[in-house]
Amino acid sequence: MKLSTPLEHQIQKAFFQWWELQYGNPLCWATPNGGYRNIVTATKLKAEGVRAGVPDVFLAIPNGEYHGLFMEFKRAKGKLQPNQELYLALLSQVGYKAVVVRSIKEAIDIVEAYLKGLKPRRVSVTT
């Protein structure tokens, strides 16, 4: 029996499960700019500033070299859209680390290397 390649959703979901267990820090979040929406919702989101091509995940912790880390999640053989390539390049030009992630292991390795030397901690948020 051949195992299927994990979907972007599955990789990203596994990443956030790991992130919450490891750090529990709210300074990492997903940008819900993908998926299919009806025309009314799509029009509202576009008017509110949602942009196609913005990477899936942002880690808002600077590391001295970069302002933060953007990650675009793709399946093992998934291809970037031209607008995704553009955003990754633009973000890199202005001081962010911007990468494509193709597996949960790769996501964890990238984040751990990015945070090396930093001590992100659990953060409790009270309102």
Structure description:
Helices cover 38% and strands 13% of the residues. The protein contains four helices and four strands; from the N terminus they run H-E-H-E-E-H-E-H. A four-stranded mixed sheet has the order 1-2-3-4, with helices on both faces. Strand 3, helix 3 (82-93) and strand 4 form a beta-alpha-beta unit.
How is the secondary structure organized here?
Layout: H1 8-22, E1 28-30, H2 39-47, E2 57-59, E3 69-73, H3 82-93, E4 97-101, H4 104-115
Descriptors for this entry?
alpha+beta; 38% helix; single chain; four-stranded mixed beta sheet; 127 residues; 4 strands; 4 helices; globular; Trna Endonuclease, Chain: A, domain 1; 13% strand
Report the portion of residues in β strands: 5-15%
CATH class: Alpha Beta
Strand order of the largest sheet: 1-2-3-4
Helix content: 25-40%
Oligomer, anyone? single chain
